[in-house]
Amino acid sequence: MEASKIISAPWDRLRDTTLLRTRNLIGGEWCSASDGGEHAVLNPSSQQVLAKVPASSEEDARRAVQAAHDAGKEWAELTSKARASVLRRWHDLILQHRDDLGLILAAEQGKPLAESVGEVVYGAGFVEWFAEEGKRVYGDVIPPHAKDKRIVVVKQPVGVAALITPWNFPSAMITRKVGPALAAGCTVVLKPAEDTPLSALALGELALRAGVPPGVFNIVTTAQPASVGGVFTSDPLVRKLSFTGSTRVGKMLMAQCAGTVKRVSLELGGNAAFIVFDDADLDAAIAGLMACKFRNTGQTCISANRILIQDGIFDAFSKRLVEAVRSLAVGDPLADGSQQGPLINEAAFLKVNRLVNDALARGADALEGASVHDRGGWFYQPTVLANVPSDATICSEEIFGPVAVLERFSTEADVVARANNSPYGLAGYFYSRDVGRCWRVAEALEVGIVGVNEGSISTELAPFGGVKESGIGREGSKYGIDDYLETKYMCFGGVA
């Protein structure tokens, strides 16, 4: 770590300052961008510069891809148990340094410290899970079509995997991709989000300490995501691309990957409906909505975007929700007791402000908040809106902020149709105590993930992913390793 790269931050609170890396990780070495370029990482709470990291170019991305390719054969030839032992050491080191990793995450992302540490622990779970799951990559022996033949199916690593991760979960989205890739025997090149590269580099440092061989895990930071992404999608050495981010960018990457027919996993935008039927447990529904809507200041792809409340309970639910939202503590993410931090950057702040102002101008009622926060900067008041006209932009655009938009509905058929009236299909939620309704609605919602009487649905044990324009593939669970494996059929003749 070079002291000149660390500008201004609460880094004196770190127990292990060597976790604060400010260079690319390529071929097991920490290195600057080839042209010496840098870009600043900001603290979204204070808007001060935290550090400067490489503004990598296409040349740096190509070097990283080549390093991953060169390391691929030896890593793939290790036994799954040998790879698992390395991953397990990485998992243990992540947990051992959870407080420092949480501090780095909170400083660069703006997530409250307790929530940031929670993300680190959650992310470590993917490393542990896939360390074990890699040992359960099974093939098949298929009854042959002739007595002198034998049919065998084996699973082999895809090869070099290029991973592009978002800023809203800068630790967990990395482990959710790197864990299965390494367990499968792939090598990786990671491009973390421009706003949050420090968490990625800290994880890279711990991976080296865990014994991940040089070139197996490479990290390239950049202020030019399009050019680096272009290398990932065009270089024939890359055989797999995994991306979490917006649907717009995901479509572009998917089209670019067609030139070399790469395997693609996409976890894209969402427009989750959160439905509360009149027979629901209102206390449970309020608690579930608060966790779902206001976690990470509303900046999650599975956050409730449309909150649909049945007519008979609308007023009671609205009143309870306003009371809960009003109690949220907004403050410095590193301060004790903070529950809501700032939005990630100015663009995110301006978007939320624009969506709310548009809704108010069209006649929406502000039940709580609906304005910038007194703290200034990129802080926004936790907000509840009601009676929002259907033509308001906030009804169709992903909010990605601490704004709850309440809508009324009358019947089950009506609300399911409205929930499905979206090009997105990542997550959906509903609350009801009618067992028959629970089965009907869960099966009818056109999404990849359903929370039934539950607002917190993320776990390494279950498959995460969407349908329609919300993506392709699944992450986590036994299904999460499949996208990093090729299926090879071998026919043995002359046996009889």
From TrEMBL:
Keywords: Oxidoreductase
Active-site residue list: E267
Entry's Gene Ontology molecular function annotations: succinate-semialdehyde dehydrogenase (NADP+) activity
Alphabetized InterPro entries for the sequence: Ald_DH/histidinol_DH, Ald_DH_C, Ald_DH_CS_GLU, Ald_DH_N, Aldehyde_DH_dom, Aldehyde_DH_Superfamily, Succ_semiAld_DH
The protein's name: Succinate-semialdehyde dehydrogenase [NADP(+)] GabD
Aminoacyl-tRNA synthetase keyword on record: no
Gene name, Swiss-Prot/TrEMBL: gabD_2
Domain of life of the organism encoding this protein: Bacteria
PROSITE patterns on file: ALDEHYDE_DEHYDR_GLU (PS00687)
EC number per UniProt: 1.2.1.79
Protein family membership: Belongs to the aldehyde dehydrogenase family.
This protein's record includes keyword Oxidoreductase: yes
